[in-house]
Amino acid sequence: MGAAKDLVRLLILVEVVVAIAGPGAAALSMDYYAMTCPFAEYIVRNVVSEAVMGDPTLAAGLLRLHFHDCFVQGCDASVLLDSTAGNTAEKDAPANKSLRGFEVIDKIKQMLEAQCPGVVSCADVLAFAARDAVLFAGGPYYGVPTGRRDGSRSVFSDTFTALPAPFLNASSLISLFATHGFNVQDMVALSGGHTLGVAHCAAFKTRLTTETATLDSGLGSSLAAACKSGGDSATATFDRTSTAFDGVYFKELQQRRGLLSSDQTLFESPETKQLVNMFAMNPGYFFFAFQQGMLKMGQIDLKEGDHGEVRKSCRVVNSGRW
Ligand code: HEM
């Protein structure tokens, strides 16, 4: 009887752990590098800290790299592979042209290879670096389970449907994120990643003429002026505090100061408006929901066991070709 009770307790515990960690978590663990590269997290944190102190805008770049990695064929560092003579890689797709922070990842990887060669995957480096970037920008800290493996496929056309376009409305965003197991709250909280960084006019200029009813007129005029003088490559920040991870992004959506259509739609749509209001009022709750979302995001379609490798250089597969 006692043994049966213990078994039931054990099963409940396993279920709770799986429920917290989410699907795909079986391959990951919190102490994955404890024996093989115990200082891996510190090495990543030191390099990210130095990089972000030198250029605070890099936090945005590092966060976005992890997102664009995970949404295209899972978190397998495919976004880091360089194009080759016969293949245009993900990083050269239009949606990835403005990705930043590759040099920071290279530096981390070089240091890890010097310390413990062939052990820490580039996909794990991306997950750590994104977490630390958020932390140094003032955002929440969360433990990153590790053990991801690096993939060998990186094809630019894979990004076309996998990455959300800036003109998507709330319903389309909900559907796209749902394909990876995210609920509406996850999607809105993760969109809060736009508390950091900038977008180019090419991504928001249509909103300036087609969405005047949901665009603060002062912001509309200044964005239009910026785009007129700088063209598609001019940039604007997502919110007024673009290097600080905070709740200002959501407050600005309430003021109709969202930069992309896909930002403002979150306040305009009844499906997501309450979440925007809640995150704007309670940044602590936004931080909590963002952590949950990032944990899920870091576990999308993981390569397990023989599927995948630990790359020596994040820019090329180990065989040198694929
Ligand atoms: C919800 C759907 C999303 C859409 C449609 C979207 C779209 C975009 C676009 C168009 C840009 C600007 C690109 C440019 O013009 O250079 C951008 C930047 C950015 N995105 Fe997203 N994004 C989404 C979700 C996310 C998520 C989930 C995260 C992270 C959790 C994220 C993090 C960022 C960051 C940090 C930047 C600024 C990058 C920089 O300053 O270099 N985005 N996003």
TrEMBL record:
Its cofactor is heme b; Ca(2+). Gene3D superfamilies: 1.10.520.10, Peroxidase, domain 2 (1.10.420.10). Residues 27-318 form the Plant heme peroxidase family profile domain. The record marks R64 as: Transition state stabilizer. It is an enzyme of class 1 (oxidoreductase). The keyword Disulfide bond applies. The active site is at H68 (proton acceptor). This is Peroxidase. GO terms for molecular function: heme binding; lactoperoxidase activity; metal ion binding. GO terms for biological process: hydrogen peroxide catabolic process; response to oxidative stress.
